[in-house]
Design brief:
The protein is an alpha+beta fold. The chain has eight helices and four strands; from the N terminus they run ααααβαβββααα. The protein has a four-stranded mixed β-sheet with strand order 1-2-3-4, sandwiched between helices. The radius of gyration is 17 Å and the shape is globular. The N terminus is likely disordered.
Length: 211
């Protein structure tokens, strides 16, 4: 499915009341395991477990400061920023992008216009923009505004977009997204994607989660 077609479906939805998150996850679920009616709930449960472990894992490998005193949204933001460092890729992000986390998530400054920002962005992968609400963008197209309370589910929404729109993972976060693919989605990766960085990251993750 193309971004344009999906965007058209959203615009034609009655009162735009469509549950975009469910739509994307359902599409991803059909791709992963079409005959499993519980696949979406299973993915969500595994994601919650992954995030709980990742908060401790990030502190353990010094990618994340202890998220003490932060509410759920604050913890989610801290985790989003730290995830690429927890599961690092050998390829540096484009200079204009800044840190690797910017491939997935960007906090809009008060002076920034989202459309202008998207046009200047050096890569076209799915992105969550954080402002008063969350704005999901795919390529240069802002698709949907989401409640800020969904921040902790943002990486799952992005994974749903990668599967729905058939995007290639940005190299600077490929290790992280491959880990989410195998550990949360339980979807195997191609042999050529079994990189040294992925094998190292998954070994460290397995060692930590067994403790």
């Amino acid at each position: 499915m193309t971004v344009a077609v999906f965007s058209c479906k959203l615009q034609n939805a009655s009162s735009c009341s469509i549950d975009f998150y469910t739509q994307v996850l359902d599409e991803m679920g059909r791709t992963l395991e079409a005959g499993n009616k519980n696949i979406t709930d299973q993915i969500k449960a595994r994601w919650e477990s992954f995030c709980e472990n990742a908060l401790f894992f990030g502190v353990w490998n010094k990618s994340l400061k202890p998220p003490m005193g932060l509410d759920k949204s604050g913890q989610a933001i801290a985790l989003m920023k730290a995830l690429p460092s927890m599961f690092p890729s050998p390829t540096a992000p484009p200079k204009k992008l800044g840190s690797a986390s910017e491939a997935l998530f960007h906090v809009l400054e008060s002076s920034e216009d989202p459309n202008t920002f998207l046009q200047k962005r050096p890569i076209t992968s799915p992105l969550i923009l954080d402002s008063t609400n969350l704005l999901l963008a795919v390529g240069k197209i802002p698709l949907m505004t989401l409640p800020r309370e969904m921040m902790h589910e943002a990486p799952l929404i992005l994974m749903g977009c990668f599967y729905t729109f058939h995007f290639t993972y940005p190299k600077c976060v490929a290790t992280l997204l491959s880990v989410i693919q195998t550990e949360v989605l339980k979807d195997s990766i191609h042999e050529r994607d079994l990189t040294h960085s992925y094998k190292k990251a998954i070994a460290e993750w397995a060692e930590f989660t067994k403790k």
